[in-house]
Amino acid sequence: MYAVVQFMVKNSGILLFCFFIFCLAGVQAQSPNGHSFKVVPLGVKGGLDESNLSSYMIAPTGSDDFICADAGTVRHGIDVAVASKVFKGSADAVLKENIKGYLISHGHLDHVAGLIMNSPEDSKKNIYALPSVAAVLKDKYFTWQAWANFTNEGDLPHLDKYSYVYLKEKEKVALAGTQMQVLAFPLSHGPSYESTAFLISHESDCLLYLGDTGADQIEKSDRLQQLWTAIAPFIKDHQLKAIFIETSFFDKQPEKLLFGHLTPHLLMQELQKLAELSGLDNLKQVPIVITHMKAFGAAEQELVSELKKDNQQGFKLVYPVQGKILLF
Ligand SMILES: [Zn+2]
Ligand SMILES: [Zn+2]
């Protein structure tokens, strides 16, 4: 015992230094307010209102270098955020300087229209997508027939403003100009149509954004099961800060009219499967952000009520609002 005390007295400087480093590491792992990511929704709905379609700016807290996950509505969402003082600069500066690139989950217009329409005003940046998704942009939109080809591939001439970066399964890719990385997982969005989930990471923390998806049972697929298996360890370790996932239709929507989308009941079924892998109590701490509702006005409130009713486990459901910052 005496020897231990003598050691501590002799080396108190070193011990103090170690303690200081330990504390510093603790501070660095999490920002002082405990948040790891900030998200500015530029559009949150799944149709009808063309000024509010899926698009989410995501950055680590403390950084203004964002990646934009999907780009259904871009400019109007930025205008709303600027008007509510989420950004200090002009809408033009946000588009050109703060958005460093786009992650595109799939090629449906409600996820890419904002990107296409704003391309003449935009700055040079990357479009990150699975090859099948990039092919839709390349072969259907940036063709000089649907729109001028602002990209670096496809129909000539190339205006070279956007560069495609092809994502591969199980390959982590750095998001240029940001402090984040992305890992892509293919999703099933109707028969043989591919959508994408993006696991966006910064240091040891991550956030999951899913593009449109059906439930495995309906899609006759195991894409969600594979995704849940891959992300469960991050939930167990409390590194996954939020899950963005769609709920497009009411429970009463007939199966054959789901078109690769989820209902409150199907969402809860899938979350239950994830909970079996991650532990229910762990998953209940993760905010589940409900995207892509195809319901408006009174119907939107009814869909929210249905989600509440079906949420028997008490998952933490969050409803994003256009231009209103979310911290995770
Ligand atoms: Zn959609
Ligand atoms: Zn879609």
Describe this structure in words.
- The protein is an alpha/beta fold and 328 residues long.
- The chain has a single domain, classed as Metallo-beta-lactamase, Chain A (4-Layer Sandwich).
- It has helices at 2-10, 12-29, 75-83, 91-98, 109-118, 131-141, 216-219, 223-236, 264-278, 280-283, 298-310, and strands spanning 37-43, 55-60, 66-69, 99-103, 125-129, 162-166, 173-174, 181-188, 194-202, 205-210, 240-246, 288-291, 317-318, 326-327.
- The strands form two sheets. A seven-stranded mixed sheet has the order 6-5-4-3-2-1-14. It has a seven-stranded mixed sheet with strand order 7-8-9-10-11-12-13, with helices on one face.
- Helix 8 (223-236) packs across helix 9 (264-278).
- The longest helix is centred in the N-terminal third of the chain and has 18 residues, at 12-29.
- The chain is globular, with a radius of gyration of 22 Å.
- The chain starts with a helix and ends with a strand.
- Residues 21-30 have low confidence and may be disordered.
- Belongs to the cyclic nucleotide phosphodiesterase class-II family.
